[in-house]
Amino acid sequence: MGTVFSFDVRGGEPAAVRAAVDEAVAGLHRVDEVFSTYRADSQVSRLARGELTVAACAPEVAEVLELAVEAERESDGWFSTSYRGRLDPTGIVKGWAVERAARRIAAAGATGVSVNGGGDVQVLGAPGAGRPWRVGVADPLRPGVLAAVVSAAAAAELAVATSGTAERGAHIVDPRTGRSAVTDLVSVTVIAPRLTWADCWATAAFARGSREGLRWLESLDGVEALLVTSEDEVRCTGGLARWLG
């Protein structure tokens, strides 16, 4: 998936948790093999070329594509798995894979799990009694500076995902034109229970622009967000403040 992953795991029986972490890492490598659009022999690349059917692919492919259909519907088409007319589920795969890895480790008995995939984070449980998970949100206009810190003290599960141009340039596509999205935004950070959706919603909101993106995010249950414009204006959903600390 072209990024770095890190794990912070607390509690549980050490051998079982260690085995689950190893399985989660192997699972992430497997996701890259199956879904990479940079590998000509990946199942997704072969599917896009018509060499495979969905039924002939690993079961995870059908699962991800079904989630992508749901994301496209919920976002009124602003999230899409089509890139220049070609199948490309990249926008949903990373969040889904990180969330799946975190849940695999939690199911093995860990009492607190944080998995970070390239700055997008899924946390489950708690790092310790009375202690919160804290997730920094990078300032897209000031390298090395945090725009906010999300504190997940009371949440059994929480995800933080950011889409923008600071790290990867203009890589987000406007599904209406098939070209790079031209908006007044430089980043959108979404907070939601599941990283699968937080990642999708951050991408879709960025493509919409600050006004429409914020209005749409406000309509989603259990979702809060922080948007930064190219003019250094910060816009937030109404309930964001309770997650900051």
What does this structure look like?
- By secondary structure, this protein is of the alpha+beta class.
- The chain has a single domain, classed as ApbE-like domains (T-fold, Roll), CATH 3.10.520.
- 35% of the residues lie in helices and 25% in strands.
- The protein has six helices and 13 strands.
- The strands form four sheets. The protein has a seven-stranded antiparallel β-sheet. A two-stranded antiparallel sheet has the order 2-3.
- A hairpin with a 7-residue loop joins strand 6 and strand 7.
- Helix 5 packs antiparallel against helix 6.
- The longest helix is centred in the first third of the chain and has 22 residues.
- The protein is globular and about 50 Å long.
- The two termini are 31 Å apart.
Strand content: 25-35%
Number of strands: 13
Give the strand line-up of the largest sheet: 1-4-5-8-11-12-13
How can the largest sheet be summarized?
7 strands, antiparallel
Structural class: alpha+beta
Query: What is the CATH homologous superfamily assignment?
Result: ApbE-like domains
Quaternary state of this entry equals single chain
CATH-assigned fold name: T-fold
**Mean of residue pLDDT values:** 91
Query: How would you sum up the global shape?
Result: globular
Tell me the count of domains.
1
Fraction of residues in helices? Answer: 25-40%
Pick out the low-confidence regions.
Answer: none
